[in-house]
Each structure stands twice: as C-alpha cells, then as structure tokens.
C-alpha cells in the first residue's frame, strides 16, 4: 500500500496554542483508525519513534507523530508532564476528526511518550480506545522523582540537561550570543559526570541555574511532593475506559510503575497485556550491561517470532479494527526469565505458586567487602555480632549497573560488581553454591534491623547473581531514606544508636539462579549519582551543603533477623 507523508500539520489546543504533527496515511481512499504518539524529543527524529510508522500506515492506519507543547515545532511554554492531560484530550479530539479517520484512536510510545498516553487516557476522551505504553511511569515516587524516599537525582539532573539545548535554541536561537551559550551548555553536558552532578546544594545545579532554562527542574527539587502529585496517574485509573498493551524491562527505571499500570488495567476489567524483557531504559536489544541474553530476547524479533511493530499492529487490529485475530485471547503476561534465558507466558503477577522464602544475613561481624565473612542462608541467626561501616557523603559508592538513566560513565543493566564489593563501606553476604536451579520471579524485599549515629541516613540493598568464576552481577536493588521509612508522607528523624526495623523494596525480577551459582546481598548507604546523597544531618538534602559521616550498623541475630525475601517458584 502506498503511503502519503504530511509534515507540520497544525493542531490547535483549547487555549489557541498550535502543536505540530507529522502524519503518515494510506494513499488509497477509505476510512482508517488513527494511531498517535506525542513526544518531547522531536517529531522529525524517526529513530525515536518506537514503532515503524510506515509499516503501520501500510497496514491501514493513519499514524500521527506530534511534538508536545513547547518542544521543537510546537508552540507554547513547556510544562513537562503537567500539560499532557488537557493537551492529550485536545490532541485525541483533533486526531479522531482527521480526514479519512474512522474516529477510533490508539496511541503508542515509550517513556515520556508512554506517559502522554496514560495522561490522555486519564482525560477520558471517548475516541481513545487503546494505549500501548512502554517503559512508563504512573507514579512519580516509584522511579521518576523518588525511590524509597530518596530523590532520583541522577535521572532528573541528566534528563533535564539533555532537554536544555533544544529549549535554548527555541528561546535564543536568533540572539547574537546563542553560539557561545550553546557551546557552554554542551560543555556542561560533557562535564556532567565529573563536575556538576556533585553540586551542593542541589538547587545550585550550575548548568540550569546559570542558563535559566527549564525552571520547572528547581520546582521539583524544592517542592518535590507537590510536583509529583500534579502528574500522578493513579488517581485517574477509575475514569479510564481504554485497553492497554504494556512493555517493560527488568533493568528499567520504571519497572514497578509499568507492572502496576498493567495490574490496575486488569483489576478494572479492561483488556491488558504485559511484556517484560531483560531490558534497560530504551535498550530493547538482546544485551544489557555485561550480559547477552540470546537473540530471542531482542524486541526486534521477540522470542524469534515477531518484531515490536508487528506485535503492536496485531493489538491495534484487535482493539481498533475489531479483528478476531486471537491477540486478546493470549496469556496476558509474557516475561523473560534471565539465567535460563527464555520466555514464558503466565496469567497473573505475582504468580500464585510463589513461595516467599527468607534468606538470612550472617557474619562474625566482619562482612565488609567480598573478602569478609558475610554469609547468606535460610537458617535463622541466633547470637551474632552486628556488622559496621562508615558512610561518608564525600566518598559515596558510585552507581555501577542497575535500573538507571545516566550518562555512559555510569553503566546500566547487569554489570560486574567487583569495584563495588571491594569497598569497606559495602557489606557483602554470599550463599553457598546452589546444587539445583532456583527460579526467583516476582517482587523482592529486604527486611533489615539497622542503627546509625546520624539523625537521618540511607540504606541500599542489592541482590546479585554470582557466577562460578566469581563474577557478581546485580539483579535488583532498592533504597530507603530513613526519615521516610514509614512512607513519603511521613518524615521522622532518627534517634542515634536506636535499632530500627526497616523494609527495602527491591522491585521485581525474573531470574533463574543456575547450579553452581551463588546468591549475594550487598548492603551499603549510597548509590550516587543515581540517588542523591543523604548528608546525614537531618536537614534538607536538597537545599544544604553541610554533611557529616555516619557510623552504620546492620544487625542479624535472634531478635533482629535481617533477611531478604525471594519469590521462589517451586520446580514442577
């Protein structure tokens, strides 16, 4: 089928602001459903589209790619995330009335343009029938603004700075000093890992403070809860009427949110499917970090059966065209089991057969570094000395692997943890080699008993898969900011020396620990710049620069049986 391309097609919002779109449509006369994406990264940047618009148009769809308000060709002032609710409604209304449209609209896209889909669905326009968000957040406290009460500093600082060049070009592209300002901004991006990411207080973040660009960044830093509440999707699920095809990754920054969004669609009785692969944010290939998971892990030929665009086209055929192609009858969840490196289809999350199994921390009080005496087993501890280490905010544990979106110096995905586990401020607990495969599929949590010399501090827990040759690869991790140990709405400082029970949510995974492998737990107090450093003073971590060291203790005895809970799937 021949495809016609239209560029810079105007779409007028209710306040008169004009947004620009590119449109791919079948050349043959007829009525076609519309599939739309709304993104802040440039509608004329095809490699960011997520799906192939030509293939969709050839299959009988009008495909719309729109610049959101205040970005690239679209007018107006950008208010990231907040603007997408009303604009989403207006954009869907416009798309449903395009020449040749059947009036039915679906959406697609990943990350920010996954969020624009949920915001449009929250707006409730009846023409929107289905969405297909990939690697998407629905709650800012789960990976966008916060995680476990800690600020997602590295993500926010990096992402906003990468948005800044286009914003500068919009504001000052015709000004005489634009070349030098643009050069200075690019220099700031290039030197982010060694200089500006370390700025204190955070509100002195030089690249954006000096440039005056994207002031919303500083609003988020100084009033994070208010900013987060304005963009949360969760209050809106009851009003949605759309179906959903969700795609997420085990090493994505929005793993939990993607799963939660899918579950809420299912709980409301709406058709929904979920694909979870061994992917990082934006990388859907067969490799992540140091590991390759086999060609079938690549979303360009998922399970050696179909590419991402084909999977979405089948979804749209079923939900927008009403075709009985069997798509809606498939098992709702397709997940990739790392280690075994194969896909499996299941009907629920978590799996009903899950056995939540505690693995306890043990040592003689010397679990510092991988050379220490830290052990992990299913035996409950009796009388053991606690482990101690000193956390110094001036020398934090640097981010190395995990569910991150940072500059390339801080690698994402599963990465050999040797450089982390050799530090004296990282406690390491390792099991015996496994005699049989152990499948861990579901949410992972850690229950610790901790004490500190500080009024506030952080604890980070990481689950690792240790290969027979000694290489240790991170699987999932999590953090708790102790002042928010009872939730983001509570802020309670600590009494130094008091032992506190605390739960750390490590999010979700699916991995088979193979025979000969060992299970390992790391416990420390920082992962910077992924999460902002706790300065240990009990004062604002965003608006002060003074910090002190903290003496940290992890307790593991009969009264304080610190452990991690693994969601084990029994062997048949």
CA radius of gyration is: 24 Å
Strand order within the widest beta sheet: 1-2-4-3-5-7-11-12-15-16
User: What is the CATH class name of the domain at 355-569?
Assistant: Mainly Beta
Q: What structural class should be given to the helix and strand makeup?
A: alpha/beta
Poorly predicted runs are: none
Total of helices: 11
Approximately what portion of the residues adopt beta-strand conformation? 25-35%
Shape: globular
How much helicity do the residues have? 10-25%
What's the CATH H-level homologous superfamily of the domain at 355-569? Galactose-binding domain-like
Mean model confidence by pLDDT: 96
The total count of strands amounts to 27
From the N-terminal CA to the C-terminal CA, the straight-line distance is 49 Å
Oligomer: single chain
Secondary structure elements and pairings:
Blueprint: E1 3-12, E2 18-26, E3 32-39, H1 53-58, E4 62-67, H2 84-96, E5 101-107, E6 109-110, H3 112-123, E7 128-131, E8 133-134, E9 146-147, E10 150-151, H4 153-172, H5 178-190, H6 206-211, H7 216-222, H8 224-231, E11 243-251, H9 255-267, E12 272-280, E13 287-288, E14 291-292, H10 308-319, E15 333-337, E16 342-346, E17 355-362, E18 375-377, E19 387-391, H11 418-421, E20 427-430, E21 438-452, E22 458-466, E23 472-481, E24 500-513, E25 518-524, E26 550-555, E27 563-569
Parallel strand pairs: 3-4, 3-5, 5-7, 6-8, 7-11, 11-12, 12-15
Antiparallel strand pairs: 1-2, 2-4, 9-10, 13-14, 15-16, 17-18, 17-27, 19-26, 20-25, 21-24, 21-26, 21-27, 22-23, 22-25
Helix pairs in contact: 2-3, 4-5, 7-8
């Amino acid at each position: 089928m021949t495809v016609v391309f239209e560029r810079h097609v105007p779409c007028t919002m209710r306040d008169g602001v004009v947004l620009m779109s590119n449109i791919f449509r079948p050349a043959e006369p007829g009525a076609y459903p519309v599939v739309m994406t709304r993104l802040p990264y440039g509608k004329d940047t095809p490699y960011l589209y997520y799906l192939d618009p030509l293939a969709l148009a050839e299959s009988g769809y009008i495909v719309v790619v729109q610049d959101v308000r205040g970005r690239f060709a679209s007018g107006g002032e950008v208010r990231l995330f907040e603007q997408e609710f009303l604009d989403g409604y207006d954009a869907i209304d416009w798309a449903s009335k395009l020449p040749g449209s059947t009036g039915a609209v679906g959406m697609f896209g990943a990350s920010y343009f996954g969020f624009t889909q949920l915001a449009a669905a929250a707006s409730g326009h009846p023409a929107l029938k289905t969405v297909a968000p990939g690697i998407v957040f629905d709650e800012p406290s789960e990976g966008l603004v916060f995680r476990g009460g800690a600020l997602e500093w590295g993500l926010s600082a990096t992402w906003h700075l990468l948005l800044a060049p286009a914003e500068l070009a919009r504001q000052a592209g015709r000004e005489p000093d634009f070349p030098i300002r643009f050069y200075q901004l690019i220099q700031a991006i290039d030197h982010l890992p060694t200089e500006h990411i370390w700025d204190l207080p955070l509100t002195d973040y030089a690249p954006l403070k000096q440039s005056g660009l994207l002031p919303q960044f500083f609003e988020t830093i100084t009033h994070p809860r208010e900013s987060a509440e304005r963009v949360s999707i969760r209050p809106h699920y009851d009003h949605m009427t759309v179906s959903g095809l969700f795609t997420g990754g085990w090493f994505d920054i929005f793993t939990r949110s993607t799963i939660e969004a899918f579950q809420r669609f299912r709980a409301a009785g709406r058709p929904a499917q979920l694909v979870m692969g061994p992917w990082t944010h934006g990388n859907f290939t067969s490799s992540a970090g140091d590991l390759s998971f086999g060609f079938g892990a690549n979303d360009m030929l998922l399970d050696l059966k179909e590419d991402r665009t084909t999977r979405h086209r089948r979804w749209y055929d079923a939900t927008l065209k009403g075709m009985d192609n069997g798509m809606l009858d498939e098992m709702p969840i397709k997940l990739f089991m790392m280690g075994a490196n194969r896909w499996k289809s299941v009907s629920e999350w978590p799996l009903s057969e899950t056995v939540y199994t505690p693995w306890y921390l043990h040592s003689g009080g010397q679990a510092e570094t991988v050379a220490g005496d830290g052990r992990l087993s299913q035996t409950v501890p009796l009388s053991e000395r606690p482990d101690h280490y000193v956390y110094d905010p001036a020398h934090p544990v640097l981010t190395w692997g995990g569910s991150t979106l940072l500059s390339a110096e801080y690698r994402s995905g599963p990465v050999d943890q040797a450089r982390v586990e050799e530090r004296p401020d990282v406690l390491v607990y390792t099991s015996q080699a496994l005699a049989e495969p152990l499948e861990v599929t579901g949410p992972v949590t850690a229950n610790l008993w901790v004490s500190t010399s500080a009024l506030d501090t952080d604890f980070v827990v990481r689950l690792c898969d240790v290969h027979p040759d000694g290489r240790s690869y991170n699987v999932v991790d999590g953090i708790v900011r102790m002042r928010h140990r009872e939730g983001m709405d509570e802020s309670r400082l600590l009494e130094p020396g008091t032992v506190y029970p605390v739960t750390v949510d490590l999010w979700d995974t699916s991995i088979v620990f193979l025979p000969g492998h060992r299970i390992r737990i790391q416990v420390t107090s920082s992962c910077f710049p992924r999460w902002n450093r706790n300065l240990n003073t009990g004062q604002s971590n965003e608006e002060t620069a003074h910090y002190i060291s903290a003496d940290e203790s992890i307790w593991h005895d009969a009264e304080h049986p610190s452990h991690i809970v693994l969601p084990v799937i029994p062997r048949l």
